């Protein structure tokens, strides 16, 4: 009991001393506006950046549900193999009588060709009843959703977040956005939030009469009811339907509830690197403020000693320092909230569609983010205030009062030099990461395809539900049909078709293999039609191009120069033969008719690993692939509708329910580049914040050191030293700390690079160029930051300084 009373008394005493220090702290901070500005801006920038990263990661690990009380929402999934399955209406009617189910709705699904934003694409369309969104408790990210009152409205649609971002450039207003399906034009009235999963992978919702035979039931359970409570009733319902629809040879029907609750993203090394970078920025700011407080404490050391001699306790001194830091932390937290809002808005506006598809979510405020931000403020308060408060409380009154602080020329600054070196080391770590990402973006953006990508389209076609029983000749004709239609479209200069090669045992045998030569293993092979090299602008270095007869007469082969030299060293490849398989394979022998230049067909997926040694081979042979086919298309400039016209031509030539997509030729690469730029933006922001904070910290410390050594500088000038010598002393002090931080941070920076290696293109984490760029940036910024203290030292007047001391 006595211990508790003592603790309470100590707490009350601390609070009293804290309140008593308010006037003193207020006066002290008002007398140091520069110190207050640097300290609060440092904490504000760090808290803003770290909070933004916390909000971004929290959006991934705790995605915001687009539905109200999503724990009560479930999809009813029915399993069965009978030829005759129960209709959606049968299942929905049976669900009505199950206890625990509050409401039921259905959503139909269909793959349809949709024309929107100057493109014709295949989208997953869901036809829904008027109560669909109301049952889900859904809300629109943009615009509004149809309601029961809109049941009589026709020709309205709601788009997914992915389609809106990709096809409508994520514009802020819906305006007059429209889509066309067949002859029907629909006005877009709303855009759903990211990760809307009812039904999964749907791109477009259209209010209409629900399909009574084909659809998906959705249910909302009563509060407190769990799937385990409902499952026995579902099992009984399926037994009745099995008896009504299935034959004795069929497996019994089954049904289960699939939750609509979003699964969080599993964090990997890249996300941990983001967390670590945010923490580094926060620690840099803490070290910055701690160094400032230590410097400030050294200036006020005589004042502390005098107050201790007059009866003040060491706790009073420590509480005053802590209160100053606490005040700075509160102001910095307010500035951090403004910075976090700005950074979060920037991240949201620049996040590409591909990042959303990978599980990224827009930064959002939540109780968890606020708690992490509060923890960051407490961390800043503890680190930035704890060390200076402890140092101030250890002031020796007797020793300090004996010395004259104004004439001291000692090296008291060495006690917090390690703080500056530490924050510069963290800054260097982040700068290396940012430099690696920026170099990756630069290499990726500068890649030359050897093709005028602006004049190229690429179409992908996939015949759905062909199955292994469909004759390969019929599939080949179906894939060939769109090519003739594409070539007849006005504005198309040339087009070709590509398909995967069918290689037995992943080995290519040549006529030289019979004579003892080595076979080619795992070649990169593509089956193409005539016009392929003309469309892509490739040059045949030797021999001839493919002709229409090659595909009909057993096939022909064109190799790249490297592969030709590998298969036929010291020999001419033209006229030799090979087949796609081992010696015992029944694949036909094909004649090599040409050799294409290496630089035209080399595409380095991993440039950092050196030259690409992949064997590249093109054949023009009878099509035997059941997989999807690609169609490279060269178009004339100045024909704005050519992409839609090509899409329509392909759709008109394909069987129903086939998949087709026409995109700019470099669309996939541009999507990867947008991801690279987004990741680079995050690390560049973190690196820039750390650089500013590190430079500000060094500036503050060097300014303090120069101020403490003014008497020494005056003596040096009186003894004949030049002004340039004084500036050199200040800059040398800054350079020592900068080099120390650079040396330590370089190693950690390269280690951190491996955490984000999977997000880089063409860059190895141990990269000399990126390391040198980060070092030069840090050294240049720190030296520029120290020019003002150096110039102040140059203006030291011996007479004035000596008179003042």
Describe this structure in words.
Helix 13 (414-445) crosses helix 24. The protein is globular and about 100 Å long. With 805 residues, it is of the alpha+beta class. The strands form 3 sheets. Strands 1, 2, 3, 4, 5, 6, 7, 8, 9 and 10 form a 10-stranded mixed β-sheet that branches.
Give the topology.
Blueprint: H1 2-30, H2 33-61, E1 73-79, H3 88-96, E2 101-116, E3 119-128, H4 132-136, E4 142-143, E5 156-159, H5 161-167, E6 178-181, E7 184-191, E8 204-207, E9 216-221, H6 227-245, E10 254-259, H7 269-299, H8 301-309, H9 314-350, H10 353-357, H11 367-393, H12 397-402, H13 414-445, E11 456-462, H14 472-487, E12 492-495, E13 498-500, E14 507-510, H15 511-514, E15 520-521, E16 524-528, H16 532-536, E17 540-543, H17 548-552, E18 556-560, H18 561-567, E19 577-579, E20 590-596, H19 598-601, E21 616-620, E22 629-635, H20 642-653, E23 659-664, H21 667-708, H22 710-718, H23 723-753, H24 768-785, H25 787-794, H26 798-804
Parallel strand pairs: 3-8, 5-7, 16-21, 18-20
Antiparallel strand pairs: 1-9, 1-10, 2-3, 2-9, 4-7, 5-8, 6-7, 11-22, 11-23, 12-22, 13-16, 14-15, 14-19, 17-20, 18-21, 19-20
Helix pairs in contact: 1-9, 2-7, 2-9, 2-11, 2-21, 7-11, 7-13, 7-21, 9-11, 13-21, 13-23, 13-24, 14-20, 21-23, 21-24, 21-25, 22-26, 23-24, 23-25
